[in-house]
Amino acid sequence: MRPALTLVTDAALCGSRGLAATVRHAVQGGVTTVQLRDKHGTASAQLAELDRLATVIDGRADLLVNDRLDVALAARERGLPVAGVHLGQGDAGVRQARAELGPDAIVGLTANTAAHLAAVAALPAHTVDYLGVGVIRPTVTKPDHPTPLGVPGFRDFAAATALPCVAIGGIRRSDVGPLRAAGAAGIAVVSALCAAADPETAARQLRAAWQGVSR
C-alpha cells in the first residue's frame, strides 16, 4: 500500500491528452496510487482502460478500481496487476471485497462521519486497509459531497481511528503540509492532476509538498 499521493481519475478532465497519457505523466511525477474511477463506463470499457493503465504505470504505483468490485475481480482473473478496490458507502460491501479479493488485496473505504467510524470499528480486523476521508474543501468533481471537513475536521476524524486516513476533496498544494501534520497517511486528488496543463510537474509539486521540500 503506497498512499502518499493518489490520483483518482476523471477522463473528461484529461481532455484531448487522454487518460493513459495523464496517468503516465502523473506517475512519472511521483503518484504512488492510481484509482480508476468511471461512474458510467461498462465493465468491458473499464477492463480495457485498466489494461492501458497497467501498461503505462508499469509497476511504479498501485492500481485500484473505484466502486466496481466486479471489475476488479474480472481484471485480476485476466492477470492484470490490480491491487484492490476503493469503495464508497453505497458500493459493494467491504466484507465481500475482502472475502473475494483475498487477504493481500488493498481495500479502501470512503468515510466521513462518526457513524462510518463506528461501522468500521465493528468489522473484523484487516477488513479495511485505509479510509478515504473528505471532502477537505468544496469540489466540483463531487457535486453531492458532504460538508467540508477542512484540516481541523480531518485532524479530529483521523485521531478517532487507528486506520490510515487519506485526505481527499478540493485539496490545494498549500493544504498538503498541514494535512500531513494533521495525521494524513496520504492525499488524493482529481482535478489537480487530471486538469493540470503538466501533470508530471503538478505531481512533483504535490510530492514535494508532502515531503516538506520547496520546489
UniProtKB/TrEMBL annotation:
Domain called Thiamine phosphate synthase/TenI: residue spans: 5-193
CC cofactor: Mg(2+)
Enzyme Commission number(s): 2.5.1.3
Short name of one Pfam family: TMP-TENI
Positions with a binding annotation for 2-[(2R,5Z)-2-carboxy-4-methylthiazol-5(2H)-ylidene]ethyl phosphate: 139-141, 170, 190-191
Listed Gene3D superfamilies: Aldolase class I
Recorded superkingdom: Bacteria
Stored CDD domains: TMP_TenI
Pathway: Cofactor biosynthesis; thiamine diphosphate biosynthesis; thiamine phosphate from 4-amino-2-methyl-5-diphosphomethylpyrimidine and 4-methyl-5-(2-phosphoethyl)-thiazole: step 1/1
Protein residues bound to 4-amino-2-methyl-5-(diphosphooxymethyl)pyrimidine: 35-39, 66, 110, 142
Xref: InterPro entries: Aldolase_TIM, ThiamineP_synth_sf, ThiamineP_synth_TenI, TMP_synthase
Binding sites annotated in the UniProt record for Mg(2+): 67, 91
Cofactor binding note: Binds 1 Mg(2+) ion per subunit.
Known catalytic reactions: 2-[(2R,5Z)-2-carboxy-4-methylthiazol-5(2H)-ylidene]ethyl phosphate + 4-amino-2-methyl-5-(diphosphooxymethyl)pyrimidine + 2 H(+) = thiamine phosphate + CO2 + diphosphate; 2-(2-carboxy-4-methylthiazol-5-yl)ethyl phosphate + 4-amino-2-methyl-5-(diphosphooxymethyl)pyrimidine + 2 H(+) = thiamine phosphate + CO2 + diphosphate; 4-methyl-5-(2-phosphooxyethyl)-thiazole + 4-amino-2-methyl-5-(diphosphooxymethyl)pyrimidine + H(+) = thiamine phosphate + diphosphate
Keywords: Magnesium, Metal-binding, Thiamine biosynthesis, Transferase
A GO MF term: thiamine-phosphate diphosphorylase activity
Protein family membership: Belongs to the thiamine-phosphate synthase family.
Functional summary from the UniProt entry: Condenses 4-methyl-5-(beta-hydroxyethyl)thiazole monophosphate (THZ-P) and 2-methyl-4-amino-5-hydroxymethyl pyrimidine pyrophosphate (HMP-PP) to form thiamine monophosphate (TMP).
Protein name as it appears in the record: Thiamine-phosphate synthase
Classification of source organism: Bacteria, Bacillati, Actinomycetota, Actinomycetes, Micrococcales
Chain's gene name: thiE
